[in-house]
Amino acid sequence: MSTKFTEDVVPLTDLKTNPGRIVKHVAEVHRPVLLTSRGRGVAVVQSVVDYEEAQEERAFMRAVVEGLADLEAVARHTEGETQSDDITLVVIRRQG
Fold it and tell me: What is the pTM of this model?
């Protein structure tokens, strides 16, 4: 999802005058819109569906990172005690 500056950067006044167009746009293109005031970014508008999907993806990735950190800690703890034919089981907990 890359930003298209010609479509996804919108002055705040455009949102004030035609909010329906902005909401329809973010729902159709599945990209957030950056709202600007005096040329500076002030807020982001994103569809609820895209926001929820991004939150779920972040939670999943955090769980993966946590699981990998746990695995690394176990590996450090058991270093020198394992044999080359040992099998390691990785469990990833999905939060949600």
Answer: 0.62
